[in-house]
Amino acid sequence: MPSVTTVLSATESEKSKAGLRTWQANNPGALEAASTRGSAIHKCCENHIRGLSHDCPEEYEAFWNGMSQYLDWFDTIHWSERPLRQDWYHLRSDDKEVAYVWSTEHLYAGCPDLIGEIGGVKIIADFKTSNGPYMNRFPDKGDRMGFGGFRKYQKCAQQMAAYRLALHERTGYLCDVALIIVSTEQENQAIFIDGDQLSLYESRFLKRAQQFHEIEKNNEATDCSQQELQEQK
Q1: How does DSSP assign the chain, residue by residue?
Q2: pLDDT tens digits along 29-80
């Protein structure tokens, strides 16, 4: 099954894809650096949740500072990169190194960052590092930084809605809200998304999942036709 992020990336508009290519060309190595930074902060979060020393690399300390306060909100944690409750162990790989949630109905899979509870409220959370803050409302005209933050928020909201649906399908556990924890060098954010909004983002993601699989079918049909043509030749 394709990952949630694969589905979202493959179904971006052509304008968005072209913009990303231009940004990558103008900022060589920036995407890889952001990925490395994100992995380091995820590891810090995972260690903190498990009561271990976070051992954050010095160059990422600014992104880590202040994030632990949001992790400490949780009274109970059921999942941190992998299930912590025994009745969810069937979601782990055979070697127990990784874990996923997936939807057999809509054909996608993914790995949430954190699932837990705050005051009895069931929450699915995601950690993000960013050069600028996220924005959960449409920005003012001309606010390019705000527009970038809004696009990141929209994508992350669909990502968590997809994980929430897959988790419910696999375990029967339905999260009430989602939480995006964003860290930049200057500030940290905790953005909650209520259940009604998550249902809206779920619908948007499922349309994109359907679009993704239609594209895949068309590509497979094209490949088969080309193969048959080669065989005939």
Answers
A1: --BHHHHHHHTS-HHHHHHHHHHHHHSTTHHHHHHHHHHHHHHHHHHHHTTS-----GGGHHHHTTTHHHHTT-SEEEEESSB-SGGGGGGB-TTSS-B-EEETTTTEEE--SEEEEETTEEEEEEEEE-SS---SSPPPTT-HHHHHHHHHHHHHHHHHHHHHHHHHHHHS---SEEEEEEE-SS-EEEEEE-HHHHHHHHHHHHHHHHHHHHHHHHHHHHHHHHHHHHHH-
A2: 878 888 899 899 999 999 999 888 888 889 999 899 878 889 999 999 999 9
Predicted confidence (pLDDT) per residue in 120-147, tens digit: 999 999 999 998 899 988 888 888 788 8
